[in-house]
Design a protein that fits this description.
- There is one protein chain.
- By secondary structure, the chain is mainly α.
- Helices cover about 70% and strands about 0% of the residues.
- Helix 2 crosses helix 4 and helix 4 runs antiparallel to helix 5.
- It is flat and about 55 Å long.
- The N and C termini lie far apart (about 55 Å).
Length: about 150
């Protein structure tokens, strides 16, 4: 839509909803206020997911697990948000610690972006790979497919 970053939506004055929305979205991209806005959005989504789950349990959502019975590394991610939305943080942590850490990472991403990008690409790949392997082992053990 052409325009400098951080400017209001074209055709909207600063007092109109478009101007407010433009300023809010700009704030959401940067700094501590953005972190708070992302956490608030995630909390709202978690409460909504918990309510939907309480009203109508859709069952297993992971296609890999539904077809093969083997969980993927991200299995339990929806359960994390359902448990958080229901006010049970320990159960959320036990469902998938990596998904919970990833959600927190998304929340603080703009603040921690420079530190993450300061790592060499190979180091970042190893960290992500190790997290996914750890998450898969966790899921296999949690669902009784791996004896530890």
């Amino acid at each position: 839509m052409g325009g400098a970053p951080g400017t209001a939506v074209a055709g909207a004055s600063q007092g109109t909803p478009g101007g407010v929305l433009g300023r809010t979205l700009d704030t959401a991209r940067h700094g501590p206020m953005g972190v708070l806005l992302r956490i608030a959005a995630m909390a709202g989504a978690a409460v909504g997911a918990a309510w939907i789950h309480r009203v109508n349990d859709p069952g297993v959502l992971c296609p890999l697990r539904a077809i093969t019975g083997v969980p993927c590394p991200l299995c339990g991610g929806t359960t994390v948000f359902i448990e958080l939305g229901a006010g049970r943080p320990v159960q959320a942590l036990l469902a998938n610690p990596v998904a919970l850490a990833g959600a927190l990472g998304v929340a603080v991403a703009p603040v921690a972006r420079d530190r993450w990008l300061a790592l060499r690409p190979r180091t970042r790949s190893w960290l992500i790979g190790a997290a996914l392997v750890g998450a898969e082992v966790w899921q296999l053990a949690r669902l009784g497919l791996l004896r530890v």
